[in-house]
Amino acid sequence: MVKSALVTGATGQDGSYLMELLLKKGYEVFGLVRRLSVPNMGNIQHIVDRVTLIDGDLIDQSSLNAAVKEADPDEVYSLAAQSFVATSFVQPVLTGEITGLGVVRLLEAVRANAPDARFYQASSSEMFGRVDREPQDETTPFHPRSPYGVAKVYAYWACVNYREAHDLFVSNGILFNHESERRGLEFLTRKVSHGVARIHAGLTKSIALGNLDAKRDWGYAPEYVDLMWRVLQHREPDDFVGATGESHSVREFVAEAFRLAGISDWEKHVTMDDKNLRPSEVYNLRGDASKAKRILGWEAKTRFKDLVRTMVEAEIRALQQVRPAR
User: Fold this and answer.
1) Catalytic site residues?
2) pLDDT of 17-56, one tens digit each?
3) What is the dotted CATH code of the domain comprising 186-216+247-286+303-322?
4) pTM over 0.90
5) β-pair type (215-216, 248-249)
6) Distance in angstroms (rounded) separating the CA atoms of residues 104 and 98
7) Residues 26, 117, 41, 189: is their CA dihedral positive or negative?
8) 4-178+219-242 adopts what CATH topology?
């Protein structure tokens, strides 16, 4: 019997890769999308005729109820969020409504209309925030340092509560940063890879960044959506960290991106802008995914330099297609 899955955040980086994976595995795939005046279908244009898109919004309970009824899913992947940390400081209430309460609305829709469905929540390493130990695993205390992180902690505990109070199959994937050429341009890694490619092509001279010393555990997004799927195939609901186990600074990412583009004096092309600094910074995140490896057989394979190469080369190719060499 064909399985069905409902994916929220369908047009985002993770949603697009996850829907590709589910299609390859023979699922009937439904994607929840917000109605926008200008549709944002770039990441899923190549599969849009193979999935069913449903209009819905995490702040509208009735649309979520209708979406779950229509999809009648075996699995629900809760990926949608206001996911840009910087924006969460400017719009903390909206972030709480979408990233926090939006998950509860989706849980309610599932509880009422598909109580046997398995539910995956996209939790985040930003929940750890100011850490007192390294690396971080499933037992590390949360100390979020942004409204986004706070909202993700709320959603995490809501999922645990629905699992315990209502006996739903609800699991959290606490994933560390995972990037790709499909990342939104507002995110640091894509801002860097895109900017470096433009400098390489002579279209601009510099990139404005913030804290270069913050360290993150960066992996490759297609591998992390495989973890999401594995989490829901486990015999019982549980929570898992997804990470590479390595941390690298923003400075390292920038230097490697410029090196790959053949630009050695990268400092000349980077300016510092205070608007890119967080009011409260998260300095060092590094995950321990040994539980996911032991129980689910998952581990990150793409290393840091290979990730940077993948992103930078994709940007350079994209610009060459738009502006072919003369």
Assistant:
1) 124, 126, 148
2) 999 999 999 999 999 999 876 668 899 999 999 999 999 9
3) 3.90.25.10
4) yes
5) antiparallel
6) 10
7) negative
8) Rossmann fold (3.40.50)
